[in-house]
């Protein structure tokens, strides 16, 4: 019984990425991004992005977003939904529907976590 609990705990920790954020699949990372945006959670947002991501995302990766940036992200990802996903090895493309437009998000797998490169 104890071994089962330990194994379940290890599986949960592995699948949740960092600090309870789920980055185990491209879709779960996008859902984490949507949730972190709605909560204006700098740490959660930062974990969703690769350190190799485009320069425009540096303030997200570095957790130096202004209140305006956080509000803009909250608005951008409000009611966002995943339309489709395509995984090719350690790369993925996720199509999402945002309130103002549709977006293609490019992702890579780093250290067992799926993270955003660009959109």
Could you list some keywords that capture this structure?
119 residues; Nuclear Transport Factor 2, Chain: A; globular; single chain; alpha+beta; four-stranded antiparallel β-sheet; 5 helices; 4 strands
Note the topology.
Blueprint: H1 2-15, H2 26-39, H3 42-47, H4 58-61, H5 67-76, E1 81-88, E2 91-97, E3 102-110, E4 113-118
Helix pairs in contact: 2-5
Can you summarize this structure?
The chain is of the alpha+beta class and 119 residues long.
Task: Describe, in plain words, how this protein is organized in 3D.
- The protein is of the alpha+beta class.
- The protein has one domain: Roll (Nuclear Transport Factor 2, Chain: A), CATH 3.10.450.50.
- The chain has 5 helices and 4 strands; from the N terminus they run αααααββββ.
- The protein has a 4-stranded antiparallel β-sheet, with helices on one face.
- A hairpin with a 2-residue loop joins β3 and β4.
- α2 packs across α5.
- It starts with a helix and ends with a strand.
Find the CATH topology: Nuclear Transport Factor 2, Chain: A
Helix-strand makeup class: alpha+beta
Mean pLDDT: 86
Q: Estimate what percentage of residues fall within beta strands.
A: 25-35%
Number of helices: 5
What is the CATH class? Alpha Beta
Order of helices and strands: HHHHHEEEE
How would a textbook summarize the main sheet? 4 strands, antiparallel
From the N-terminal CA to the C-terminal CA, the straight-line distance is: 45 Å
Percent helix, as a range, is: 40-55%
Tally of structural domains: 1
Rg from alpha-carbon coordinates: 15 Å
């Amino acid at each position: 019984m104890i071994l089962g609990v330990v194994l379940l705990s290890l599986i949960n920790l592995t699948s949740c990425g960092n600090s309870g954020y789920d980055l185990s699949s491209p879709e779960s990372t996008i859902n984490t991004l949507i949730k972190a945006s709605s909560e204006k959670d700098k740490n959660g947002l930062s974990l969703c992005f690769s350190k190799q991501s485009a320069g425009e995302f540096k303030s997200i990766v570095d957790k130096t977003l202004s209140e305006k940036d956080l509000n803009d992200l909250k608005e951008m990802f409000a009611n966002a939904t995943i339309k489709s996903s395509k995984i090719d090895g350690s790369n993925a493309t996720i199509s999402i529907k945002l309130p103002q437009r549709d977006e293609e998000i490019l992702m890579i797998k780093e250290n067992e976590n799926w993270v955003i490169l660009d959109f």
